[in-house]
Amino acid sequence: MDERTWEEIFTSEFFDGEVRFKESMRDYTSLRIGGPADIIAMPKDPMSMKNIFIVAKKRDIPVFPIGSGTNLLVMDGGIEGIVLSLKFFKRIDVLEDEGEVVELFVEAGSPLQGLVSFAKEKGYAGIEALAGIPGSVGGAIFMNAGAFGVEMKDVIKSVAVMDKNGMLNRLDRDEIGFSYRQSSIPQGSVILSANIILKKADKTYVEEKTRQYMDKKRQSQPLKEHSAGCAFKNPAGDSAGRLIELAGCKGMRVGDAEVSHIHANFIVNKGNATAKDFLKLMEIVRSRVKDASGVLLEPEIRIVGKND
Ligand SMILES: Cc1cc2nc3c(=O)[nH]c(=O)nc-3n(C[C@H](O)[C@H](O)[C@H](O)COP(=O)(O)OP(=O)(O)OC[C@H]3O[C@@H](n4cnc5c(N)ncnc54)[C@H](O)[C@@H]3O)c2cc1C
Description:
Blueprint: H1 6-10, E1 17-24, E2 36-43, H2 46-58, E3 63-66, E4 72-74, E5 79-85, E6 92-96, E7 101-107, H3 112-122, E8 124-125, H4 137-143, E9 146-147, E10 150-151, E11 156-162, E12 168-172, E13 178-179, E14 182-183, E15 190-200, H5 203-220, H6 240-246, E16 253-254, E17 257-259, E18 267-269, H7 275-293, E19 302-304
Parallel strand pairs: 2-5, 3-5, 4-19
Antiparallel strand pairs: 1-2, 6-7, 7-15, 8-15, 9-10, 11-12, 11-15, 13-14, 16-17, 17-18
Bound molecules: flavin-adenine dinucleotide.
Residues 30, 64-72, 86, 108, 133-136, 138-140, 142-143, 145-147, 181, 187, 190-191, 221, 223, 227-229, 302 line the site of flavin-adenine dinucleotide (FAD).
């Protein structure tokens, strides 16, 4: 039996990277809400990541991967176990640039907007509509993030995933079930990288398209406030924002959690909102929308962690 403390393990040769103990998840999420995580591990290489999975499995400790925390509501009691950050996995390489099609290798910790800018600078088309979506490439794949009719799945060729046993697998796009704001990649497995297919295009065209989408996003979403993006999924054929506005919820508040005045499907943290405030407001909005239009909204944000 391995009797070492986590401090001893994370300072041994088994692990290259950074580690934090009992740090508030406020500092790791765009919503700036959440209690502490027992351990936040930031491995620098796949072997260190594999070792984390092996030890966590032996000790029966959960591992929760995060990207940039832009789609997360972390509960006030924090997260038990290990939060695994991919902040050191940020490489973007061009694998193929010969014909009209371009293949990129992208590590999952790369900011999605880093990838959008890279494509814009090179004149590679396909992801202009994702301009302005915060978060990492890994989070965007896991969530099948999208905007204006374009989703992450549209440009994926394959994904490298490490499962909870530390085994690395390559999944082709067809082996992954992608649907609206979700993928079939099991929660807890880590996406390490992806091969992405884009098309060569006129550079000014890609620049202009990216700028147009970015402008649209700035006009319609409260990008400067603390949020986790859309709180609820759009029901088929409708918009959750429209239904929330119709139900008279814009500006409603519980503590420091507020239904945004700019986009009703964004719930923002005006300062010191707790997860409890946020969830209470979500429940009120849900029940008002149900009463007003008969639609039961489903959360889009990922709610993780434990109660106080
Ligand atoms: C202002 C704002 C605007 C937004 N606009 C949009 C939008 O237009 N469209 C849209 O789709 N979303 C939008 N979002 C939501 C969010 O940005 C996306 O869902 C984003 O792709 C999440 O990426 P992330 O790295 O922050 O993931 P996180 O929030 O860190 O994690 C989200 C989920 O993905 C999992 N995950 C993250 N990284 C990995 C990995 N490497 N391997 C396995 N699992 C992983 C986590 O375990 C978690 O379940 C918006 C958010 C904000 C704050």
